[in-house]
Predict the structure.
Amino acid sequence: MGRLGAYSLLKRILPEAIQSPFLASSRHSVETKRLSTNHSASGGVDGHGFLGWNHELGQKQAIESQEEEIRCIPIKAYFLCTSIDLKSMQTDNAYNVIPPTSRSLNYVTLRYCDFPPEITGMRIKLDWSCYRYMVVFQYGSAVLFNVADHEVEGYLDVVRKHASGLLPELRKDDYAVVEKPQLVTWMQGGHDYIVLQSLDTDGIRIIGSVLGQSIALDHFIWQVDGIVEEFTDINRSMEKSGTFTMQRKKLFQLVGKANSNLADVILKLGLFERSEIAWRDANYAQILEYLRDEYELAQRFGSLNFKLKFVEHNIHFLQEVLQHRRSDHLEWCVIVLLSIDNILSIYEIVHESAITPL
């Protein structure tokens, strides 16, 4: 039902309240006087009972008003593939795409609207529950804002249609934004949540970028941990046997895997790239720096880089071993060829001397 339909429904249900606001106001005054009279009768002739009741009512309404203004917006971050075709995704979801405010081309922001009219007293209440946001990144992350658990698969299916290199298992992280207009400062941090005066699309982009990088970084760290474990097993085997049995092809595969992970982290994730949104507005820069510190992106990348250096050191060592092994093979081949040549030469000499008459 659209806004006009909701208005027509209200007009039919509450014609007097909509058409005669002054009448509604006067009825409210009569009701107030009636309550005042009743409370005066029970609380005393001077009307202090009504004043106390009115004060309590005002406090209750103030508390309810504050509770209504504070909103908790759940966030879910997923890493589901290694690449997403953003151009085709924007084409298929053009109606939902929010125009970008920066020149960054590695993500797209989509907004989904749902306006269910909830008649509360004499008004239609439309708030954050009517909106769903999704920020999709080219490197394979999708961050969902205000999406319930049972709705997640529907949104992820939209992404999967344009994804390649789907992972067998999703990686997930949860976060939340508390929107509090009464907050004195622009933002305030918490455990697994952040409090903001208000959340707009640029704020969604900033928060989504950090969560998307974090969940993707988890995947690459897991990949590098697997490579480190393989080299650890190789070193343990060499320690026990004193020999190295890995094939050259397997070593090159590990080299390629390590290099591709490092390239993906630096080039695709853009951990150290400047955000134009944060550069234009100090408030968003504050959010960005806080979340980067909260998720320890720099420290985790440092740990990843250290592991890759360990892998690099092992690769160089094993390459030298393979090179020496190859050199040894070539030397043995030369020795065998020389031996064959000597044997043939001796054979020819003996054969010639045997047929030559004395």
Remarks:
- The chain has three domains: 3-66, 68-209, 214-341.
- Confidence is low (pLDDT under 50) at residues 1-48, 117-126.
- The radius of gyration is 36 Å.
- The CA atoms of residues 23 and 43 lie 29 Å apart.
